[in-house]
Amino acid sequence: MKPSEANTESEGPDPIPDATKETIATAYHEAGHAVMALAVGRSIQKVTIAPGKLQFGGSRLGTCEIKKGRSKGSKDQLEDDVLVLLAGMVSESRFTGVYCPAGASQDLREVSARLCTRAASQRQHETLLKRMLSKTEHLLNDEANLDAIRAITKELLDKTTISGRAVKHHFEMAQRRHA
């Protein structure tokens, strides 16, 4: 899978001397999850690019912890879940220039599990996945969302972990700047 050429990020956050390409990609990934979560009405507990262990083995490069509950109603909770899960890979691709299914493998397994509840066949599953991926790209291409992703990425690179309140602040400020 490849994102459209117009999606590549020409200017990322100011370079951080100690940040590796993997760390920057992880920051974009987690910022993408956070921005999409806020866009669909979820609240964020915290976002981190600190490595850690997964509950059932394996490791993760970062995480976006979403609070339980919703701050606004949704017409389609399953769609919202899928958009949030895909947003990490889509956002990361703005920095790397390509989708990285290996880096988003846990997210993609979750997407597949959720889409199986809606798709009766493999073909329907693939069609639904393409539609959700296209919608994710469209929503994250919004200038206010791009601005929020950049700001959250920069703060993650500066501090490693940021609160849900800080994430919401960056998101709301970006929305105001582009209103």
Q: What's the SSE blueprint?
A:
Layout lengths: L20 H19 L4 E5 L3 E2 L5 E2 L2 E4 L10 H20 L8 H11 L6 H19 L2 H17 L1 E3 H14 L2
Antiparallel strand pairs: 1-4, 1-5, 2-3
Descriptive notes:
56% of the residues lie in helices and 9% in strands. The chain has a 3-stranded antiparallel sheet with strand order 4-1-5. A two-stranded antiparallel ribbon has the order 2-3. Helix 2 packs across helix 4. It starts with 20 loop residues before the first helix and ends with a helix. It is mainly alpha-helical and 179 residues long. The chain has helices at 21-39, 77-96, 105-115, 122-140, 143-159, 164-177; strands spanning 44-48, 52-53, 59-60, 63-66, 161-163.
Multimerization status:
single chain
Uncertain ranges = 1-13
Task: Report the average pLDDT across residues.
Answer: 86
Which secondary-structure class do the elements indicate?
mainly alpha
Assess the beta-strand content as a share of residues: 5-15%
Order of helices and strands: HEEEEHHHHEH
Described by strand count, sense and barrel closure, the largest sheet is: 3 strands, antiparallel
**Cα gyration radius (Å):** 15 Å
In short:
By secondary structure, this protein is mainly α. The chain has helices at residues 21-39, 77-96, 105-115, 122-140, 143-159, 164-177; strands at residues 44-48, 52-53, 59-60, 63-66, 161-163. The strands form two sheets. A three-stranded antiparallel beta sheet has the order 4-1-5.
